[in-house]
Amino acid sequence: MNLMAKKTPPVSPSDSKKSAVFWSFVEIAWELGYLISLPLLLFIFTGRLLDKKLGTAPWLLIAGIIISILISAVLVYFKVIKFAARIVSEDQKSPIKSDQDRPNK
Predict the structure, then answer these.
(1) What average pLDDT does the chain have?
(2) What is the residue extent of each domain of the chain?
């Protein structure tokens, strides 16, 4: 008996759409992680370095954190708007209609 010869069930359009939606959310989560962490790390290390050099600890570190939070908030806002617009445009192109769009019999 060959265990490798198992048949895989056919993939329905709704399954492929669910998979596409899942990977879209993974993509946006990954991008948002970078949009938040990279400015934070950059400004933390820059603020810390300047604090040591200028003897102003912890003020430039705190300023760097605040600046990175503001930059990250703006970047996240525009990324979410772009992502939402993409989701809406994909929904409008989708041939799969919901039960509400189907005529009653």
Answers:
(1) 82
(2) 32-91
